[in-house]
Structure formats: structure tokens, C-alpha cells
Amino acid sequence: MESELASEEEPASAATADPPRTLMTTLxxxxxxxxxxxxxxxxxxxxxxxxxxxxASSSRPLDPDETAxxxxxxxxxxxxxxxxWKYEELAPDVVLSITRARHRxxxxxxxxxxxxxxxxxxxxxxxxxxxxxxxxxxLAALAEHGPSLGVPG
Length: 153
Known about the structure:
This protein has 153 residues and is an alpha+beta fold. The protein has a single domain, classed as Nuclear Transport Factor 2, Chain: A (Roll). Helices cover 37% and strands 33% of the residues. It has helices spanning 2-8, 12-16, 23-36, 39-43, 64-77, 135-145, and strands at 46-52, 81-91, 94-104, 110-122, 125-132. Strands 1-5-4-3-2 form a five-stranded mixed beta sheet, sandwiched between helices. It starts with a helix and ends in an 8-residue tail after the last helix. The relative contact order is 0.16. Residues 1-14 have low confidence and may be disordered.
């Protein structure tokens, strides 16, 4: 009887293991870290081989560390703000994130706009991120390029 009970129980390590990381849970972690202004936590959401276009980088594709630096700079600016996060899971490793973003444009004017971020993941982390002005443009890029999103890597 005792041996039967032992074989039916899960090993302690399996019972306490973290749930698998998914791109959607990573995006929610990123959103929370962004709202707190925690650049280190945001960087932890990026795959080490990521290439990311962001509002903070003026849509330039950057590596994860450069993106974290751009986010830190934008947060110090005092104007930069991303809010109203919405997500559309297109596939387990592809999510369309829709937000409002207030930021300084290249001419230093302040812009407040809707931003469509197409995000593809690897290992549950953000791997490719590309910005669009519309949902239809984002979906067309996904159809044309697949998970690489046409972002050079």
C-alpha cells in the first residue's frame, strides 16, 4: 500500500516547477515592467537574439540591450508613455499588441498615436518586434514574412 501511494505522487520538483513560459505571459510581464519603469525587467522579456522596433527607438530595429537603453532614455524624457495595452494572439508565438503611445517625434513635436506591434517569440520571449500604423499592415507583413516579420536579424 505504501509503495502504491509513493508511485502515484508527483516528484516534489514537478509539483513546484514554474508553468511553461509563453509569449503572452511574457508580454503581460513586459507591460507590468513598463508601467513600473523597470528597464531591467523589460530587458528580461527579450530573447538574446531579439531584434526590436519600438516607439522608444523611433522605430529603428535594435538588439535587446540597445532597446533597453532606448527605453531608459525615453522614460527619462518625461513625455514618453505607452498605455491602453490590448493583445490579439494570432498564434502561440505571434501576438499583435495594440497600444496608445505618446512620444516625441523626430522633429521634437509630441505625438500621441495608436501603435500596432507585431511580436513573434522564441522560447517564450520576445524575438522579433515590428511596428505598424494599422492592423491590416501588420497582418500583411506576417503573411508575407512569417515569424521573422521581415525584420533583419
